[in-house]
């Protein structure tokens, strides 16, 4: 059975930086849950970061830049947490390899999980086009990454994998 990787916060787990969740109520996700298809991951918590934790943003760049060593992930307050984010991305990729996963749904706008847009590093709420570190690493390795706003498209991609 083909499995799907999903951000833990979207599944209702309270792992966000502020101690909250971003639970989605979606029939497709509920069906996947009952079918045992879901593999949950929070890259930041898996990397050992605490909950709650200071907000972090990629400073003037995107996940690809972090992977290439060009830019860093910075906590509000200035601490560099790039290595934690890289470690979390590697853990997510290893889960995809372990369970032969090629479709993921990750939480939009996160510096780890965002797949279309992220915050710009100014901690002002401004979003820019780009990917988080985990989304970039998974895509680099052929995983199709969708956001919580694209669950139907993710379902179609999964069906194409199955047939
Ligand atoms: S790292 Fe991803 S899974 Fe974890 S709280 Fe942030 S968006 Fe959710």
Order of helix and strand elements from N to C terminus:
EHEHEHEHEEEHEH
User: Biggest β-sheet, characterized?
Assistant: 4 strands, parallel
Strand content: 15-25%
Low-confidence residue ranges: none
The average pLDDT is 97
Order of strands, main sheet, comes to 2-1-5-8
Strand tally: 8
**Oligomeric form of this entry?**
single chain
Number of helices: 6
From the alpha carbons, calculate the radius of gyration and give it in angstroms. 15 Å
| Helical residue percent band | 25-40%
Protein name: DUF523 domain-containing protein
Organism: Vreelandella olivaria
InterPro entries: 2-thiour_desulf
Pfam families: 2-thiour_desulf
How would you characterize this protein structure?
This is DUF523 domain-containing protein. 43% of the residues are buried. This protein has helices at residues 27-35, 43-46, 63-67, 82-98, 133-140, 151-162; strands at 4-7, 38-41, 56-58, 73-75, 103-105, 117-119, 127-129, 144-146. A 4-stranded parallel beta sheet has the order 2-1-5-8, sandwiched between helices. It has a two-stranded antiparallel ribbon with strand order 3-4. The chain has a two-stranded antiparallel sheet with strand order 6-7. It has 6 helices and 8 strands. The mean pLDDT is 97. Helix 1 links the parallel strand 1 (4-7) and strand 2. The chain has 163 residues and is an alpha/beta fold. The protein has one domain (4-162). Helix content is 34%, strand content 16%. The structure holds iron/sulfur cluster. Iron/sulfur cluster (SF4) binds at residues 7-9, 15-16, 42-44, 107, 110, 112-113.
């Amino acid at each position: 059975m083909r499995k799907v990787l999903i951000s833990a916060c979207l599944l209702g787990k309270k792992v966000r930086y502020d101690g909250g969740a971003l639970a989605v109520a979606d029939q497709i996700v509920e069906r996947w849950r009952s079918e045992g298809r879901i593999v949950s991951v929070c890259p930041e918590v898996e990397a050992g970061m605490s909950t709650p934790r200071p907000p972090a943003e990629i400073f003037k760049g995107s996940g690809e830049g972090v992977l290439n060593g060009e830019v860093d992930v910075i906590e509000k307050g200035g601490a560099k947490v790039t290595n934690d984010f890289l470690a979390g991305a590697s853990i997510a990729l290893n889960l995809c390899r372990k369970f032969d996963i090629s479709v993921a749904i990750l939480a939009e706008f996160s510096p780890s999980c965002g797949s279309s847009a992220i915050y710009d590093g100014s901690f002002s709420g401004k979003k820019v086009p780009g990917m988080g570190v985990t989304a970039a690493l998974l895509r680099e390795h052929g995983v199709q990454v969708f956001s919580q706003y694209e669950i139907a498209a993710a379902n179609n991609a999964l069906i194409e994998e199955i047939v």
